[in-house]
Amino acid sequence: MTTTAADQAPGSSAPEPTDENVWLEEIYGEAPLAWVREQNARTEDLLEDADYVGLEGSILEVLDSTDRIAMVGKRGEWYYNFWKDQANPKGLWRRTSWESYLTDSPVWDVLLDVDALAAAEGEEWVFHGATFLRPAAGDPYRLALLALSPDGGDANRYREFDVATRTFVDPADGGFDLPTAKGNVSWLDADTLLVASTAGDLPRTASSYARTAVTLRRGDALSAAARLFEVPEDHMMAVVAHDSTPGFERTFAVDYIDFYNRSTFIRWDDAWLEIDAPTDVNLSAHREWLLFRPQQDWSHEGNTYPAGSLLAAKFEDYLAGARDLLVLFAPDAHTSLQSWSWTRNFLLLNLLRDVSSEIRVLDPSVPGVAADGAASDGRAADGGAWASSLLDACPPLHDVNAYAVDDEDEGPADGGAGDDFWLVATGFTTPSTLMRGSLTRNPAGTAGSGGGVAGTAGVVSSHAAVKASPSFFNDDKYEVQQHFAVSADGTRVPYFQVASRDLVLDGQNPTQLSGYGGFEVSRTPAYSGTVGRAWLERRTATSGGPGEAAHSRGGVYVVANIRGGGEYGPSWHRAALKENRHRAFEDFAAVAQHLVHRGVTSRERLGCVGGSNGGLLVGNMLTTYPELFGAISCGVPLLDMRRYTKLSAGHSWIAEYGDPDVAAEWEYIKTFSPYHLLKDGVEYPETFIWTATSDDRVGPVQARKMAARMQAMGIPNVWFHEALEGGHAGASDNRQAAALQARSQHFLWRSLAGG
């Protein structure tokens, strides 16, 4: 491959390498799409055999199962759900009562049939959610803005919908109907929206997101709406939102400078007031509280708060200049904060301890308690300023998350659900269970009862199962183990292994290694009927040498928790940013080597799979560690790191990877740009690259170019497939999702297990 200086970008000090495949960057061009169709036909001829047909049908059966949990969200007295199945591939938006939901066969009130809407309007709508207008006190929730994507991409059309009449509010009668665009929408009041959008003549950032927010009055055109907020073009995006909580009504705007830096503003006396905090400290508000989560260690008023901690201050006091912060959570070497959720009176913290869930309940009304039981000076034995109790709901090697049912409802003393919470528990061999619980204060300060909170904080919880997913494979036959590999710099890297209980450690087990390693995204235990059926339960051909008993074996599934992710908080993520990106790849390679060292598998039997940033990960396994893998499945990937900032939303990821237009940064970026690392004379693993035409986040271009270059170099067994719709997920309905997953799984099995 030639890399001579050509087409230097304006203002750039980093020369552009020659790129023979630039013509494939015209996403909907006639010639590129002809190439796509040719590649699709070639790949389908290879993969779509009789085994594939059965596999796709088996996966679709999982996705379309009517026994799945219908997850709900509460608004007023109703519980809302969006549901897809075989009869409704685009889905139904529907609701039911709590009493009905508790039954085995809830009675659903269908509000919108998306398949019928698509047929009536001749548009392949994909439902992306609903945002309700808060009604006047005592009135039911009625008006909502529905986000509908024409192709499954990130750009949505927002349309006002009346759940009472089950119809869209006609624009001729003043109904809101916003053109398809990237952005966000928030209700200010019944006749006013706050809109950040790229529609029409509204400017967009270099990252392709909304740069400007406007105030849109009912009946007015978006183009004529008054400008409200704007960010510089080289920032990532503008977001506006109104908090309508009674008594705490506030309007916010956020200038997302990049993925990890933002400035937050509040509307104050008809002007924007910036909330004083470093841009790498995330802010969130709840009633009277303002929470802070620093991405890096924060030195503040003589104290240093570690990255990943959670801090609190009274909202009004902080705006008035007070700077005293309460420590609610401080991370340690094993424990990180993943998320939090407020009920009306309590704060739920979802933690990971060595990638297994732990949940704590904090009570703002009770000070933290020191180890001796005495009231402390604001720091409890577990590091928090508020009384903290462990929620007894998390078995080892499982993922359990708690979040509020409806924090805006009345509290339990008034008969409301304001302190109720959902618990969703899952594990690799444990089908998901939905539980509901409630938190109350115990004046006596005794330990919790009813299977909930232990300790002396005076919080009582009761929670019980509401719904459970069925088993889609014989999960009792499989065992989950956690192991630790040692990376190149000595860091211990955890990974999960799911395999048959009678696994033979002879290096001959077909093994699928999955990872992500970016954007502080954590890979946690999760039940997958697809993985169970398509990989764990699939069997190799019966074999046995002279004097040996004939036997077959199933697949081994492995998830690596490499740096770049969020499993150990922001520091784990930042350890693999920009010039340190190689650490994520070294971690993944270390896990691969550990699997071989332990006798689980061998190079010929080991494959890896990743999508999006995970596609970049496995692309680097392909080009930098080809000797470790027999096959690679690379989905919706970043691969051309020289031009990624110029393609789709790529400019928004400079904070993660660096800027290739800066010569000094290109020097390290080019070391993990798979498109530029391909070499002649290398024995590369069998490779399947897949993407979607309508992906407006990463886009299909990088996948196209990588496959084209590999094929032109004469590298054997390189396959490509591009779905024509489905957005970044690669699928907009269950059938498309089943086909996508079946192709990837079938390719890996054929390559690693021999059929």
Which key features would you list for this structure?
single chain, 755 residues, alpha+beta, Rossmann fold, Nuclear Transport Factor 2, Chain: A, eight-stranded mixed beta sheet, five-stranded antiparallel beta sheet, globular, disordered N terminus
Could you characterize the architecture of this molecule?
- The protein is of the alpha+beta class.
- The protein has 3 domains: 300 residues, 3-Layer(aba) Sandwich (Rossmann fold), CATH 3.40.50; 108 residues, Nuclear Transport Factor 2, Chain: A, CATH 3.10.450; 138 residues, no CATH class.
- 18% of the residues lie in helices and 32% in strands.
- Helix 2 packs across helix 14.
- The longest helix is centred in the last third of the chain and has 20 residues.
- The N terminus is likely disordered.
Give a brief rundown of this model.
With 755 residues, this protein is α+β, with helices and mostly antiparallel strands. It is built from 14 helices and 39 strands.
List the helices and strands and how they pair.
Elements: H1 30-47, H2 50-63, E1 73-75, E2 78-83, E3 92-96, H3 98-101, E4 109-113, H4 114-121, E5 126-132, E6 143-149, E7 156-162, E8 167-168, E9 177-181, E10 183-189, E11 192-197, E12 212-217, E13 226-230, E14 237-243, E15 250-258, E16 261-268, E17 271-274, E18 281-286, E19 289-294, E20 298-300, E21 303-305, E22 310-314, H5 315-319, E23 326-329, E24 335-342, E25 347-353, E26 356-367, E27 386-390, E28 399-404, E29 420-427, E30 430-441, E31 459-468, E32 478-486, E33 492-500, E34 511-514, H6 529-536, E35 556-560, H7 570-574, H8 582-597, E36 606-611, H9 613-624, E37 631-635, H10 654-657, H11 663-669, H12 674-677, E38 686-692, H13 701-712, E39 718-723, H14 734-753
Parallel strand pairs: 34-35, 34-36, 36-37, 37-38, 38-39
Antiparallel strand pairs: 1-2, 2-3, 3-4, 5-6, 6-7, 7-8, 7-9, 10-11, 11-12, 12-13, 14-15, 15-16, 16-17, 18-19, 19-22, 20-21, 22-23, 24-25, 25-26, 26-27, 28-29, 29-30, 30-31, 32-33, 33-35
Helix pairs in contact: 2-6, 2-14, 6-14, 8-9
GO molecular function: oligopeptidase activity; serine-type endopeptidase activity
Keywords: Hydrolase, Protease, Serine protease
Domain Peptidase S9A N-terminal: 18-363
